[in-house]
Amino acid sequence: MRRLAILGSTGSIGNNALRVISEFPGQFKVAALSANTNIELLRRQIKRFHPSVVAVGDEAKARILKKSLSGNVRLLSGKDSSSRLLGDKSIDLVLIAISGAAALNPIIKAIELKKTIALANKEALVMAGSLIMEKAKANGVAVIPIDSEQSAIWQCLEGRGKDTLRKIYLTASGGPLKDSSSSYLKNVSARQVLRHPRWQMGRKITVDSATLMNKGLELIEAMRLFDVPASKIEILIHPQAVIHSMVEFIDGVIMAQLSITDMRIPIQYALSYPDRLKNCLPQVDFCKLKALTFAKPDIKKFPCLALAYRAAKSLGTMPCVLNAADEIAVEAFLSDKLRFISIPKVIERVMDKHKNNLRPALEDILRSDRWARKEALKIING
Question: In the chain, how many domains are there?
Answer without folding.
Answer: 2
